[in-house]
Amino acid sequence: MDNTDMKQIQWFPGHMAKTRRLIASNLSLVDAVVEIVDARSPLSSRNPEMDHLTKNKPRLVILNKSDLADDKTTQRWINYFRSEGSEAIAVDCKSGKGLKSILPVIKKSVLKELMDKRARNGMTGAAVRLMIVGIPNVGKSSIINKLAGSKRAKVEDRPGVTRTKQWVKLDDNTELLDMPGVLWPKFEDQDVAIRLAFTGAISDDILDIETLAMKLLSYLAENYPESIIERYNIDISDNETGLDLLENVGKKRGMVISGGEINTERAAITVIDEFRGGKLGRISLENPPEKEL
């Protein structure tokens, strides 16, 4: 992505620094770590410090919002995480798809060694304690509530809602330690920041919505052109810029103000909202890294 016209994005509220300390100080209380990522951008939606923060704890990576992502790309990501030593599954917190497999996978795969040891020692009733982590707005609280069968965790469609740790009892044998969402001190790679902005992990208040929409449209034109053609009924040519595409969306939706000028801000809000709502189709924003031979 071309970042020349996008201001540098920084995002590290004070409560996120506290989260790093909370993770480190509470890690000894749990048997495994459950990490939630966005299936559309699994690597960008992982805190790069998480490997270090969670040390050598067994881990399950949950690719949430998989119903919004490209199926084939999601499977490649699952294979990637498994090759890196973490079990991985795809779920969708809104529809509930895949959620029932989370606890069985943890107990039969992620914690198989621990569960076998407990069985040999007659400790089958001992509770499994899990720490659940993820960046803001990745659907962590929604997954917890589905697993717990009640509104245990606060849910809002904006980043940074969960501010303190809380224990949630899932069943008689499983307890979950919910940690606040954590990003990182600074974005070394602005492409990562932009992908997070596309999905809403970064507050829209610190971004130029029109620039963001133009970048998204340019990405879609190159990688998923049918999503633009089918949704907005506009042609895509090799010469069109993100601004051209945004203005065409505004024209097609009748977003014209005095003097025939296109209301590009309104068009931008529409494009971003429709992408986040899945109305542009199943789209992945990044591919797994290529393994070195």
Q: What secondary-structure arrangement, pairings included, does this model have?
A:
Elements: H1 14-26, E1 32-38, H2 50-53, E2 59-64, H3 71-83, E3 87-90, H4 102-110, H5 112-120, E4 128-134, H6 140-148, E5 166-171, E6 174-178, H7 190-199, H8 209-223, H9 225-232, H10 242-252, H11 264-276
Parallel strand pairs: 1-2, 1-4, 2-3, 4-6
Antiparallel strand pairs: 5-6
Helix pairs in contact: 8-9, 8-10, 8-11, 10-11
Protein name: Ribosome biogenesis GTPase A
InterPro entries: G_CP_dom (IPR030378), GTP-bd (IPR006073), GTP-bd_ortho_bundle_sf (IPR023179), GTP-bd_ribosome_bgen (IPR019991), GTPase_MTG1 (IPR016478), P-loop_NTPase (IPR027417)
Domain CP-type G: 19-185
Describe this structure as you would to a colleague.
With 293 residues, this protein is α/β, with parallel strands linked by helices. The protein folds into 2 domains: 15-178, Rossmann fold (3-Layer(aba) Sandwich); 208-276, Conserved Hypothetical Protein Ylqf, Chain: A, domain 2, CATH 1.10.1580.10. 39% of the residues lie in helices and 12% in strands. It has 11 helices and 6 strands. The chain has helices at residues 14-26, 50-53, 71-83, 102-110, 112-120, 140-148, 190-199, 209-223, 225-232, 242-252, 264-276, and strands at residues 32-38, 59-64, 87-90, 128-134, 166-171, 174-178. A 6-stranded mixed sheet has the order 3-2-1-4-6-5, with helices on both faces. Helix 8 packs across helix 9 (225-232), helix 8 (209-223) packs across helix 10 (242-252) and helix 10 (242-252) packs across helix 11 (264-276). The longest helix is centred in the last third of the chain and has 15 residues, at 209-223. The two termini are 27 Å apart. The model is unreliable at 155-162 (pLDDT under 50).
